[in-house]
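Entry 14. Structure prediction run on the chain below.
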Amino acid sequence: MEDNSERVRIRRRGFINILIGFFGGLFALCSLYPVLSYLWPYKGASSGTGEFSLPLDDVPQNGYKVVNYKEDKVILIRLGNRVIALSAICPHLGCLVKYREEGFIQCPCHDGRFDFSGNVIAGPPPRPLVSYPVRIAQDKIVLGG
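Output returned:
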């Protein structure tokens, strides 16, 4: 006759081994993911090289929109029939800049200010915003090219 306490102990040990295996595998996957992401970076649809376009109506008149382009965030500012494309990343500490209707671009972190050419007009940013070529073609804003 088999001892019941020995049988229960084996089931407990088996259950604990399954749990250790599960969490060990989960830990290995979580550890491996950043390494694989570094070795094979994601190429999203909105990044990469070449042109990027969006409907003209996506950017409000006298307003702005931030889009992803070439591994950067770009602020598109629409003023009348003119569109301006500048990097939306402040060169001071990397905060996202915002368009101000008062006629400048502002970094909200330390009140850095830029003109519509990307030049620093006030605050601590050490260099201008990167400018991107942009044009309007057939009711679309075409960035890059």
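The CA atoms of residues 82 and 142 lie 12 Å apart.
Filed with the rest of this week's runs.
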